[in-house]
Design goal:
CATH topology: Rossmann fold
Number of domains: 1
CATH class: Alpha Beta
Mean pLDDT: 95
Structural class: alpha/beta
Low-confidence stretches: none
Order of helices and strands: EEEHEEEHHHEHEHE
CATH architecture: 3-Layer(aba) Sandwich
Distance between the termini: 28 Å
Radius of gyration: 17 Å
Number of strands: 9
Number of helices: 6
Largest sheet: 5 strands, parallel
C-alpha cells in the first residue's frame, strides 16, 4: 500500500489550513503528523480517511501497484480519534459485530479475544454508554487496530488513557503495525516514538 499527496491543500472559507503538500506514505513505516493546535493535524487525517474533501491538489491510494478508485479508498483505512462517536446503546459485543459488517476484522481474532487484548473482557456484554472515557478509547483503538485495513490513522491515540492504557497502546503498535502505513497525529512523543518519519504541518501553511 502507498499513499501519494501532490500539492494537497485544505481551506475553510478563505483560510488555508495547509497547502502544497507533496508527500508519500509507504507500508511498514510509521509517520508522525506534528504541529501546534490548529495547524491541521486532525484535518489532514480526516482528508486521508476520506471523511473530508481536500480543497486543492491530489491524493491517491495505490494497492499492488494499482490505483485505488476514490470510492473504494475507505475500505483500506481504519481510524481512531477522540471525535469519532461510538454507538453507545450497543454492548461492546454488538458494536464489534456491527463494525465487522462494514470493516472486517482479522479472522484470527474473535470478539472475546479482542476485548481481552484491550482489557475489556469483563465489559463485553455491557452497554458502551456505561463505559468510562478511558474504556471508550480502548474500544476505538480495538476497532482500528483489529481491522484488516492496511492504513491505520491515529489521532491523539492515548487521549483519556491512564498509564496502563498507554502501555496497551504501545503493545498494540508492536503487535499490529507490521505491513501497514501507520500515521499518528500528535505532538506527544510517547504517541509517536515508534515513527520513523514526520510531517510538520507549519511547513505547509
Amino acid at each position: 500500500m502507498r499513499i501519494t499527496l501532490h500539492q494537497l491543500g485544505k481551506r475553510f472559507n478563505r483560510q488555508w489550513i495547509f497547502k502544497n503538500i507533496d508527500y508519500t506514505f509507504e507500508a511498514n513505516f510509521g509517520y508522525a503528523i506534528t504541529g501546534p493546535n490548529g495547524s491541521g493535524k486532525s484535518t489532514l487525517l480526516q482528508v486521508l480517511a476520506g471523511s473530508m474533501l481536500h480543497s486543492s491538489g491530489q491524493i491517491a491510494y495505490w494497492h499492488l501497484q494499482q490505483k485505488v478508485p476514490p470510492q473504494q479508498q475507505y475500505q483500506h483505512v481504519a481510524i481512531a480519534a477522540p471525535y469519532l462517536e461510538l454507538i453507545e446503546e450497543l454492548t461492546l459485543a454488538e458494536f464489534l459485530q456491527f463494525h465487522h459488517q462494514f470493516k472486517p476484522f482479522a479472522p484470527a481474532h474473535s470478539f472475546s479475544a479482542m476485548a481481552q487484548t484491550v482489557g475489556l473482557q469483563h465489559a463485553l456484554h455491557r452497554q458502551i454508554r456505561l463505559f468510562s472515557s478511558g474504556m471508550k478509547q480502548r474500544v476505538k483503538l480495538a476497532q482500528a487496530f483489529f481491522s484488516q485495513a492496511p492504513v491505520l490513522l491515529l489521532d491523539e491515540p492515548t487521549a483519556n488513557l491512564d498509564a496502563e492504557g498507554i502501555a496497551l497502546y504501545h503493545s498494540l503498535i508492536q503487535q499490529f503495525s507490521a505491513n501497514r502505513i501507520v500515521i499518528v497525529g500528535s505532538n506527544d512523543a510517547q504517541e509517536t516514538q515508534f515513527c520513523q518519519h514526520s510531517l510538520h504541518l507549519p511547513h505547509y501553511q
